[in-house]
């Protein structure tokens, strides 16, 4: 019975508060920057939309006479929002990410089935438990709304969890609990003060590290291999998780939808399509991810004020059929990324900040940097390469911006001070100086030499030990000792004496080799032979295979294994370990003989043999 035709004002406010909490629980609305109209959704505005619906229901009910629009909790419609109860589709499985010692982000996407009024939200409930069947022992649960405003994505923080614990989680439709998502697996980190030898229940901890996954270039077998065929517990992505380009993937069944990305619709559609790859779905379902972006999450060669084909000048807006200029494009990209990825907002007042640190007991700090989108000075945009070559030695050039750089130095010192054994630095681009037959990539740290020198000096001057830099972006494997670039007076490449750390730079999940797309192992090795000879710090080079690498970490040793996928032109889990490296705590260099003196692919600097 509808007894009132006019809404009591007080109840409106009650509704406003209650429903807003259900929206606000979905972090996708607030991402990446609550209160900024181009980069988040104002949940109060959405709530006003609901209040308008309440009016429509009370005044002209015909629009909402459908049985599929009950009020939330079945309460009095005058103070409850309408929700959709006509069925939900969990279209993109589940994911989790950015674990802490007591919480983790859970992600799904819940699309209403049928064709409901698009302005009505759907309600999703979640639960998380240490039992794989999610029977009893529910540690956290709750409900949250999603709607078309955030592409039906849902990102909630599960809290009150135990440290260093494996968890299982599942979503369901609030209005029909029988409709459930698949069950995902995730875990929390050990608490920061957990002794290094007790992390992960005393077992070594394995991270899988990825970069450069271009849909049209191949099937994401590397993700599936990591999930199914290694003991990876945490998945780290160093960027280029999506690409803005269209390409031609049709010959291998990988044609990308849409066009070159410019608007929020474009970026969402691309993320949506990438997340249909079964290997990627499996990897997101099987453990927490910790990600940072590189350039292609926005566009090729992005820096703080533009990309290779866009900036905020008249000419720089022309790339886009919809006339989007760089800033609009970047905000759209960033927003879609935060909707689709299980990543935290680090600082609500700093919309672009994704640089952040994870304290993983006293075993390691995993420090994730943003050398790309946050505050990078101008990079190689193809039409300015000569200028950038000249600028590359300027002392005031910055890759991270000085705020992040300061934070990074402080973070390194803090990490050592708190007694963490290892400092693992996840970042986008190759750190070590690389002369590739006379060609220098000035879009990598080689274009920002003084910035690199500041970091190397900081490590030496402050005796920061056990630093391991992880890099992507280059579509090839490069393993190096960290030292002053090309300086044989302070570093001995034979023994590694004088080095201050190690760099593991990994190949792409699929993107074409920088040695030449589809280059054979034999042809790539010819180049690698020249590269390890020409570059003092470089100890292993490999340029044929697509894949990823794992770090298996205990207090004494880091074992790094590079995996090569045999064929990415179709979906399969066929790969092999191409090289294994050891770093011993306290040595600050690769253990000799490097890779045990033998690899299954690529070229070692010294006395390398090819195993069988
Ligand atoms: C659910 O979503 C999947 C993936 O987009 C789609 O293949 C399937 O047809 C959808 N099911 C329904 C009932 O809409
Ligand atoms: C903007 O981009 C165009 C080409 O895309 C380039 O010609 C122009 O110099 C750029 N302007 C600025 C200010 O970077
Ligand atoms: C950076 O340094 C170069 C060379 O020292 C100088 O020409 C340039 O003006 C400086 N730029 C800024 C922004 O300070
Ligand atoms: C880079 O390597 C090539 C050989 O591949 C060599 O000719 C050239 O001198 C090197 N450049 C520098 C700056 O060392
Ligand atoms: C490395 O140093 C040697 C001399 O010590 C020099 O000939 C070579 O050009 C340098 N290479 C690079 C890439 O700077
Ligand atoms: C990869 O598989 C495809 C399809 O079976 C085949 O045509 C191609 O030769 C394979 N490539 C390699 C490098 O084995
Ligand atoms: C990887 O695991 C899958 C599923 O367990 C298995 O079918 C496949 O053979 C494994 N691949 C390798 C190279 O061992
Ligand atoms: C490589 O072999 C040479 C000659 O046998 C030997 O002197 C050198 O120590 C070896 N280097 C390494 C890194 O094992």
UniProtKB/TrEMBL annotation:
Coiled coil: none annotated. This is Unplaced genomic scaffold GYMLUscaffold_30, whole genome shotgun sequence. It comes from the Eukaryota. Residues 92-188 form the Phospholipase D N-terminal domain. Keywords: Signal. CDD domains: MPP_PhoD. The keyword S-adenosyl-L-methionine does not apply. It holds the Pfam family PhoD. It comes from Collybiopsis luxurians FD-317 M1. The keyword Signal applies. Residues 1-19 form the signal peptide. InterPro entries: Metallo-depent_PP-like, PhoD-like_MPP, PhoD-like_sf, PhoD_N, Phospholipid_Metab_Enz. Residues 207-562 form the PhoD-like phosphatase metallophosphatase domain.
